[in-house]
Structure formats: structure tokens, C-alpha cells
Amino acid sequence: MDKFLETYEVATTGDWFPKGQQWYRPIVCPWLAEHENSNQGTSTCIVYTEGGGYGFDCKHRCESKTWKEFRAEVQGRFSERGFSFVEDAPEAVIGRNKSDVAQAVEIVEELDPELKATPLPKYPIDAFEDTIYLDFAKRAAEGNFVPLEFFVEGAMTYAGAISALNIRHKRSEEITARLYTVLLAFAGIGKGTTFRRIRKFAPAHRIMDDVNPEKSIPKTCSALLARPASENGLNDALLKHVHVLLEFEEMDRLMEKTEIKGSGGALMSIIRTCFDDIRPGITTCKGREVAADTAFLSLLGAMTPSLWRRAMEGRDSYGSGLGGRFNLVASNEDRTSSTLLSMDVGDLETRLEQIFSKLDGETAVIDTDSAALKLLDEWWNDNSRGKPHYNRVNVITHRKALHLAWIRGLSVITPEIMRQALRLADYLVGVREVFAVSKGEDRAAIGENRVLHILWQISPKAVSARQIVAFLDGTISRAGVFNALKSLTGSGEADRVQINPVIGRPYAVFRASKLSR
To answer: Can you give the pTM of this predicted structure?
Structure first.
């Protein structure tokens, strides 16, 4: 590393010093001109992590820069100079020949020791520019670390539940405003905050906790919040209001009650049916003298990634099951705020009330431009064949395009709006791939498939066994992870590379082999 710095004339300002399992050397930042002040000291360092790899750490405005960006920047200044970590530091790794050594060094450089979860696709937040959804999300996200996309998708789900059939597509009954949205995030990031703030998106008289049919007639654009634990509970809610928003801050409770690992309970069957239909299929029986015959259901729930995987374990959840109906939104954020400030919704409630009041008197009928339909058809035909995790993504995409047109006051889904919706579709597919449920005949097989799935998601990069244990968040024991890696390397589905660094203890990293795809 010192030779690398010398080759590309990176000035050092101090010697190597240790911090836990990391070694730091202060340098002059290549982006020093962008710093907010001239203080240096140890604020910019190159880093070597034992059991990890090389890194770049700056406490100034370039703090988001990575090792790869640092290396590209300094090498770009002297492009005529050549440098090889292998030739100058062959003892850094063990390999059968020089190419093996070079490959292993590249793996070390690609290894991100700070990675705590399987990487997620980037959410295309700019698809919602100039919409009240994004305006609300920006206000709701002030003073906390809840991602904007949670508030955007939550607000859109609420709006769809309230507007219900007052927004419809001109040519397709399945293209409605309803969404079944599930937020996937680590425990403790503020699910309660997320739900409390999303509830403030809608005017209070539009989203209700209860309805007394004898005393209150709900407005056309309104919905009842419900958290039923059974078919009877949902029936009771639907008898009060046909527009019901199922809201579950802890959605694992719903998953347990609906017996998703078995043939499915009656409640899950109704929820599954009502994604596409307004006829819930509830019948009268002993103890249920009156059955609701109409239902416009929407759903907003939250789960941790580990609970999601456990709930769906061993099943083709994106095929014929409930999983194919879910609009998944995920985050790897693990920071929390020490103090939450009050949210200022400003004029948003007034603006939204004007939008819903217009719908009370006149249904919004929205068509799709033929060129926009062609874009959706091409995307679907090019990507979806034989891939269960694409199930109903075309429907969800068209529904989001409906939202994007309606909230902007348009009567037609244009090609530009469809392109925005397709970017959201790519994101949804990416999240479903990350959280694809591992199948298997027994626990060992399911464990191997889970580990292999993580290696696929990281590929072509490598990860350490310790990182895989963290990614799985307790769904597999440490011993189970090591046994799975041993089996996968033995079968040739995973590659194991032994790293012997100059500083620190030897360690191994793993990545999916080319044969496993």
C-alpha cells in the first residue's frame, strides 16, 4: 500500500495506527479543494480492515467516496504509470499462480467490510417529482432516518384506499388504485414513526378508525382502518365500510394467523382474492348471519427481513401465493434518531382534501396511451418469462402508473409516466430477487439455498462468513452458515479464497462460482 501511495504521489501526513481490527494511515485527500475547511490531521485516511479489505475514510464533504473511487482518482492523475499490488506485495495472498494472486487481491479490494445486509436496488425516488406524495415524504422524513420511499409508497397506498373505485382505468377492471404494500426493514428503525406519520397524510375524516352505520355515512372517498385477526373480523369491518385499509405495523402476526406455511386460512384467501376482485367470497354461516358482498381492500404492513423469510420459507411465494400480490419496499438503514421533532404537514392536507373532494363528485377515468402500453408490453415480454418473482408486477406497475397520472391531474398515462412506473417495476423485481424465498426439502437444504442466494446477490463480489451470518439475521445459526459454505464449496457452487494479509490474521472470503448460475 505504501508503494501504491508513492507511485501516485499521494502525500501522507502520519504513520499507520491501529483501531480495533482496522489500520489507518493519514493522507492528504485528493478532493481537499472540496473540503469545508482546511483541517487535516487524521480526518482523511486510507484503511485496511483485517478480514475485510482496503478502504478510504474522509470526515469532510467527500465522506461518501469509496476505495474504488479513491483509487480511480489518484491513478487517473498519472494514467501512464503502472502499478500491481501482486508484484510488489505477493505475500498478501496465497494462490497457485500469479493469476490466482491477482484475482484474490481484486476480491479483497471489492470486499466491503462495512456491508451489513444484502445490497438492495436503488429506489427511483425521482419518479415522484412534482407530486404530493414526494412533498409529503420530504416533510415526514425530516429529523429521522426513515427512507423517503417508505413515506412515498405508504402515502400512495393510503390515497389508493381512500379513492378506491373513484379512480378507474378506462379499459381494464384490474387497473385500480389499490396496493398491498409491505415495508421491509430492520427492527428499531422507527416503524411506529413511519405509520404514525403516514396516517397524517390523509384528512382525518377520510381515514377512520371506526364507523357507526346508524350515525355516520362515510364520504365517497374514505376508508376504514382495520386490523382483523380472522375472517369474521374482516367481515365486520366490510359491513361498516366497503373501503378497508388493512394496516399491520407488525405484519408477522397476520402471517402467523393466516397460516401462510400451510394451505392458507380463510382470511388470507379473502385478502388474496381481493387484490384482483371486489367480491370477497364471504358466506353466511353459524355466528355470521350477514356476509359482506363487496370489498375494496388495500394493505400496508411492515416486517423485518428475517421474519419475512421465515414466513415464506420453503414456498413458491411469488407464484400462486400471497407474495405475488405484495408491493415490497425495503431498506438496509439501521440508524435511529435520538429525538423526533413534530411533523409540519403545512398545506398538504388542504391540497389533498381538494383532490378528494373533486373525486367525491366526479370519478376520474384514466386511459393508457398506446405508446405507453407498448412500453409495458415490451418490458414484460422481455423480462418475465419463467420468472415467478415477476408475478403480477405488470399489474402493480400499471396501478402505479395510474397513480402517477391521477396525482398530476392527467387523464392519460403517457409514455413518460409509464417509463417512471417501469423504473419502479425494476426496483420491485430487484427487491423480490433479494428476498426470494429459499426452497428445500429440509432445513439443511433451505440453509444452503439461503446462503447461495446471498452469494448470488453479492456476485461478483465476495463476502466473509461473518458477514453472511449478519445478513441472515438469526435465521440460520453460525454453525449452519459454515456447514452450508462447506457444502457449497465442495459442490463447486461457491468459491473459497484464502487471504493471508501482511497485517492481521488469515481469513477466507466466499463468492458464487460461475457454475452456480
So the answer is: 0.75
